[in-house]
Amino acid sequence: MEIRIGITNSGRELSFESSQSTAEIEKLIADALDSSKSFFTISDDKGKMYIVPTAGLAYVEIGSEETRRIGFVG
């Protein structure tokens, strides 16, 4: 699924694909914000790890878990 993370005072956003479920990502971010951690980490499908500061978190957009259709819809 696609994840997009906006960081304050940054013109770009983090955008990557992850194999984690929506619930896992939501819990990871909520736990980091509730416990006042200074950052949280998420890894993508290719094995890269992203360390995101919670103080600069503007938004998190989590895509759907459905597979995309290819072709025309009639």
Short description:
InterPro entries: DUF3107. With 74 residues, the protein is of the alpha+beta class. The chain has one helix at 22-34; strands at 2-7, 13-17, 39-43, 49-53, 57-62.
Structural commentary:
The chain has one helix at residues 22-34, and strands at 2-7, 13-17, 39-43, 49-53, 57-62. It has 74 residues and is of the alpha+beta class. The chain has one domain (2-62). It contains one helix and five strands; from the N terminus they run E-E-H-E-E-E. Strands 2-1-5 form a three-stranded antiparallel sheet, with no helix packed on it. A two-stranded antiparallel sheet has the order 3-4. A hairpin with a 5-residue loop joins strand 3 (39-43) and strand 4 (49-53). It comes from Mycetocola zhujimingii. InterPro entries: DUF3107. This is DUF3107 domain-containing protein. Pfam families: DUF3107 (PF11305).
Topology of this protein?
Blueprint: E1 2-7, E2 13-17, H1 22-34, E3 39-43, E4 49-53, E5 57-62
Antiparallel strand pairs: 1-2, 1-5, 3-4
Organism: Mycetocola zhujimingii
Protein name: DUF3107 domain-containing protein
Helical/strand content category: alpha+beta
Number of strands: 5
How far is the N terminus from the C terminus? 25 Å
Helical run tally: 1
Instruction: Quickly count the domains.
Output: 1
- Globular, elongated, flat, extended or rod-shaped: what is the shape? globular
- Biggest sheet, open or closed, and with what strands and sense? 3 strands, antiparallel
Task: Give the strand order of the largest sheet, numbering strands 1, 2, ... along the chain.
Answer: 2-1-5
What's the helical proportion of residues? Answer: 10-25%
InterPro entries: DUF3107
Protein name: DUF3107 domain-containing protein
